[in-house]
């Protein structure tokens, strides 16, 4: 029995030797975590924008170009979240398959400076994570048919975890007091969550973090917080907290905590996507119940 076990272990480690692993590149940390859960040891994963990183304003490096060049599969969010990656794919002429994990999500869009812009932050509705997981699984199975069964198995295990967390999220938000559903964050990253649960998120910065808000826009937001008696403002892990602290001070709202908007935390509970989601929901819940 023991011999058989050793043999099986050897066989397993042999079956995922480096040479056999497909090379997968993800654009940012949240996609990397979902992909790691499904790909497991069968893939060699390189991620581009890491924990606490801001993908909106990311500048590519020669190292990124090499990753993209060598990849078998590139997984991006889509919805215009990573235009820099599309440029990199074009300029390196990589032979990799490129997929958009958000494919099939019902997209939101917003009017910004007179233009209609798609909202890329679809991962902030946990229900959409089932779509992300399905797209990633399908792409891995097509890129590496030899391990299709393993990807399917990992997907099914992960899907159960998403669904278990969805029950917690639904219950938590369902019980929020009706008058306490307005929140201020740094940039408009939580529209999909707000739409799913009837919470209104307001931000001094728009869908992207590229443009800084003007003094007049900040003043208007402070007036709105006072007028609407918004209780809490939240800082984001990818953003400098100073502006939000100033807004809290001048408006009389309290700082409700840190929300993880576009990136995982480097360590702790929010260092996985599902951990991040639970952390955000529990932080919002705690602050809004005060
Ligand atoms: Zn964002």
What does this structure look like?
By secondary structure, the protein is an alpha/beta fold. It has two domains: 2-165, 3-Layer(aba) Sandwich (Rossmann fold); 173-288, Rossmann fold (3-Layer(aba) Sandwich), CATH 3.40.50.1980. It is 46% helix and 16% strand. It contains ten helices and ten strands. It has helices at 2-15, 29-39, 62-70, 83-92, 129-143, 148-174, 191-197, 215-227, 242-251, 273-288; strands at 22-28, 43-49, 73-76, 97-100, 109-112, 115-118, 182-184, 200-202, 232-236, 254-259. Strands 2-1-3-4 form a four-stranded parallel β-sheet, with helices on both faces. Strands 8-7-9-10 form a four-stranded parallel β-sheet, with helices on both faces. Helix 5 (129-143) packs antiparallel against helix 6, helix 6 (148-174) runs parallel beside helix 10 and helix 8 (215-227) packs across helix 9 (242-251). The termini are far apart. The model has no long low-confidence stretch (mean pLDDT 91). The structure holds zinc ion (ZN).
CATH homology-level superfamily of the largest domain: Nitrogenase molybdenum iron protein domain
**Biggest sheet strand line-up:** 2-1-3-4
Summarize the biggest pleated sheet.
4 strands, parallel
What overall geometry do the principal axes of the alpha carbons give? globular
Computed over alpha carbons, the radius of gyration is 21 Å
- Secondary-structure content class: alpha/beta
What is the number of independent domains? 2
Instruction: Note the run of SSEs as H and E.
Output: HEHEHEHEEEHHEHEHEHEH
Question: Mean of residue pLDDT?
Answer: 91
Number of strands: 10
């Amino acid at each position: 029995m023991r011999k058989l076990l050793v043999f099986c272990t050897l066989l397993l480690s042999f079956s995922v030797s480096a040479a056999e692993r497909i090379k997968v590149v993800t654009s940012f940390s949240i996609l990397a975590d979902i992909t790691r859960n499904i790909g497991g040891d069968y893939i060699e994963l390189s991620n581009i924008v890491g924990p606490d990183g801001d993908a909106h304003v990311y500048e590519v490096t020669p190292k990124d170009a090499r990753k993209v060049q060598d990849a078998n599969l590139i997984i991006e969010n889509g919805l215009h979240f990573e235009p820099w990656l599309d440029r990199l794919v074009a300029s390196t002429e990589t032979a990799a398959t490129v997929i958009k994990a958000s494919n099939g999500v019902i997209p939101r869009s917003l009017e910004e400076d007179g233009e209609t812009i798609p909202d890329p932050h679809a991962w902030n509705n946990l229900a959409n994570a089932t779509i992300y997981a399905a797209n990633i699984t399908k792409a891995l199975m097509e890129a590496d048919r030899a391990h299709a069964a393993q990807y399917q198995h990992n997907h099914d295990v992960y899907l159960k975890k998403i669904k278990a967390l969805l029950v917690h999220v639904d219950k938590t938000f369902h019980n929020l007091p009706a008058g306490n559903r307005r929140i201020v964050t740094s940039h408009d990253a939580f529209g999909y969550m707000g739409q799913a649960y009837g919470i209104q998120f307001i931000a001094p910065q728009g869908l992207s973090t590229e443009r800084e808000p003007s003094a007049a826009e900040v003043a208007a937001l402070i007036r709105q917080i006072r007028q609407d008696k918004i209780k809490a403002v939240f800082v984001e892990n990818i953003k400098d907290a100073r502006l939000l602290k100033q807004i809290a001070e001048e408006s009389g709202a309290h700082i409700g905590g840190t929300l993880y908007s576009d990136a995982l935390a480097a360590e702790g509970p929010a260092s996985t996507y599902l951990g991040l989601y639970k952390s955000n929901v529990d932080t919002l819940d705690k602050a809004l119940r005060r």
